[in-house]
User: What shape does this take?
Amino acid sequence: MRAIISVVGKDRPGIMALVSTECAKRNVNIVDISQTVLQELFTMIMITELDKNGDEFKEFVDYMKVMGEKEGLSINVMHEDIFNAMHKI
Amino acid sequence: MINKNDILETIKMIEEQNLDIRTITMGISLLDCADTDIDKACDKVYEKIVRYARDLVKVGNDISKEYGIPIINKRISVTPISLLQSVSGGDCVKYAVALDKAAKKVGVDFIGGYSALVQKGITKGEKELIESIPKALSVTDIVCSSVNIGSTKAGINMDAVKKMGEVIVETANLTKDRACIGATKLVVFCNAVEDNPFMAGAFHGISEPEVVLNVGVSGPNVVRNAIKDAGKDKSMNELAEIIKKTAFKITRMGQLVGSIASERLNVPFGIVDLSLAPTPAVGDSVAYILEEMGLEKCGGPGSTACLAMLNDAVKKGGVMASSSVGGLSGAFIPVSEDAGMIEAVNAGSLNLEKLEAMTAVCSVGLDMIVVPGDTSSETISGIIADEAAIGMVNNKTTAVRIIPAIDQKGDVLEFGGLLGTGPIMNVSKFSCSDMINRGGKIPAPMQSLKN
Assistant: This one.
């Protein structure tokens, strides 16, 4: 399955490294990435591929959220289908 | 490749603008639970609901987490219980208790279907059910009841209208120690729909399949923000386009969630109900949408026109987004559940009469309205009859969910949760009791003769 990881927070060195390291540790493959900094606000969208069943995926969602909060970042992991449904006809 | 801005827009809608799936509602047919022995029938009802809906809450929560979309309520609707009562006779409240127990066992928020359809006439079982409603709603917590008293095809059953005025007063009276909460779970309909996923009016109509999953979407705050972002220089038709596009996105999400849930539960997918349903959460208000369009306060001049456009644009946007649209599908304007409506009542811009006019152009009717505790049952029946007449003549669903604040102190009733806080609204002091006491029927209008 594919999941979208969005990261938003105050910019500082190492955010991308932090998130991609966590992805690597958990065998989550990054297939596309886009990142900008706008008025000190760091915004990153990652499209990732992962081989996780329901429970593993939920655990990953929770883990990334909690890890983000500790680092002062808002990290959302969401199934790709939701964006396809909403924005593609 | 999904556009980055689209991704951020979706996340913003969910995180900041209260976008959610309001409810996934499982409709379960109880026709095969009918039994001449009421205790046996109740056992069958309990067993069947628990068997079918066992995983409903878990699946809802799983989807919520995996897709990042909050699913606020999980609910069950069942076959109108009056049909079972007609077979079994006996103390109808037993069915309500069985429903309550089964719903609590599977962990849903509400169960609807303690209902009767009496637009053309009342059977023995329906009469027994209607008479048992006050007690049934006072001894249960999450059972919802509805009675259909009129339709375009059949006219309005004025005997039932009179009876329902009394039932509402009695229901409020029996729960006056709990802010008259019984009456918040009782809806009187004209042209009730059989696949409505929203409470308190949901029931599983007799033309529905064995089991089905219906979805109600929401998102008033998303629509409001879209209008706000468009700015003040946009014309009304440009606003309509913006609302359509927003409704499309919201509905697509409902369609996705509904189809995933039905697949996981192995239950056929029914419909998406395209309703803008407000919640007491700050900003999640239909009144604020109207105000964003340019009204100083909801209820003032222009309100009905704005609401008509909103209601229509939501449908136009939603229809293409879903393979099957149904239920009530329109904007809801409940008072106690909508922060903007409450403010409008308190500011004096919104009254019962204006609300009645607004219900002619949206779903669903006079909803969650608190009236003074000394309002007579005949006056409540008169309000029901007026609202039913609007529904009957305009071929649309209308409903009345009205709460007489019997023996309550202060100017508001606090229901808590999604039911919100209802300010007591003024009711006309002029009597309609002679008219209500005539009883009988209002014949079906010319609109019914289409063949």
